[in-house]
Amino acid sequence: MVPPAGGGATEHERAAQPHCDRRRQHRHDESASMPGEEIVDQTGARRLRAGFANANRKPRQQQQGETVGEGREPRRQRPQANDDREQLRAFYGHLSAQSRYFRFFGKPRVDNIVEDVAHALASSDVVTLVAEVERRIVAVAQYFPTETGRAEAAFAIADAHQGRGIGTKLLERLGVVARSRGITSLEAYLLRDNEKMRQVLVDSGFSLTWDRAEGQIRHVVFSVAESTELQEKERLRARAAAQASLRPFFRPTTVAVVGAGRRRGGIGAEIFHNLIATGFRGRVVPINSAGGTIEGISAVKTIAEVDGEVSLAVIALPCDHVPGVVDDCVAKGIKALLIISAGFAETGAEGREREAAILDKVRAAGIRLIGPNCMGIINTDPAVRLNATFSPVYPPHGLSIYR
What we know:
Blueprint: H1 11-16, H2 29-32, E1 49-53, E2 76-78, H3 84-93, H4 97-104, H5 110-121, E3 127-133, E4 136-147, E5 150-157, H6 166-180, E6 185-191, H7 195-203, E7 207-214, E8 217-223, H8 228-250, E9 254-258, H9 267-277, E10 283-287, E11 293-294, E12 297-298, E13 312-315, H10 322-332, E14 336-339, H11 349-365, E15 368-370, E16 376-379, E17 386-389, E18 400-402
Parallel strand pairs: 1-2, 5-6, 9-10, 9-13, 13-14, 14-15
Antiparallel strand pairs: 1-3, 3-4, 4-5, 6-8, 7-8, 11-12, 16-17, 16-18
Helix pairs in contact: 3-5, 10-11
């Protein structure tokens, strides 16, 4: 199922902001009739980062963000930043008419929405989670306490990122935060035709109670208490996400070798040779600053020049060239990096700083990384035959390893 933008206007918004009042829901028939864009791409979920945005909190040392597709809990906590308001304006401004209608039961002005969210960020009781892709907000989830032990939740997901598990993950995370703050149940209001969001709630693992409806609006209450069903659903989602994020390493369709040399004996040259010699079933692209051909295959000078998508980039260059190549990989949208190069944390303080900078880049982009300073990866499955190492030995069928 492809989730729509969100769970609908909250009682807080309906009571305090007339532009969100549910009584106006039928004044925007044009928005109700416009279908939202539906994109199903589970692998895209791994690019998600999330964090708390709450203006009343004092800044703490920033924790590294973790990508949702890795099946880990996103934990980047931060206060409201100076650029949040502009990011929020861009996010809500690009929501489709239907997505905005599902979220607010109408078509409020973007400036009014941003003011509401900024006001909520200033409250010590309201919790706001934001999901980011390449430091751009792509989803906002909030809850507003309504009475002791209960809060009302609402979600909005960018149209281009719907159907990638972001709403489900934010809902899961919102439950974790609610439990930690003494909230025992969340409630939400949905339009009757928001069937896909209803299905997201049903599939979440939370215990749901649909206790009343008013015209075109449905009301649901769900306990955030941990249960066997909730834990099992979360485990299955985490496992599926982790498998999806590792697939580019062990079953890539296109491998780019950055630093592939023409003269055998160099690490980049040996990795490229091994990929060809052991019969990799996908496409191999040599990248060499001089261009030309390597082992009969045309080389390109940069990652940007590779035609089409790249599943896996293998980097075998001197360490001072690696950061720029990582930037190129981020721009290309590559999801998996294998950095063979040495000269990082194993060399001392300067190397540790160099490695930390690389990690910041890949985490911000939601990229999986093996390395640096490693031998490579192997998958001997006959359907793959991946030997992205500089080892002179190719092990027998049955192994899928990395070192």
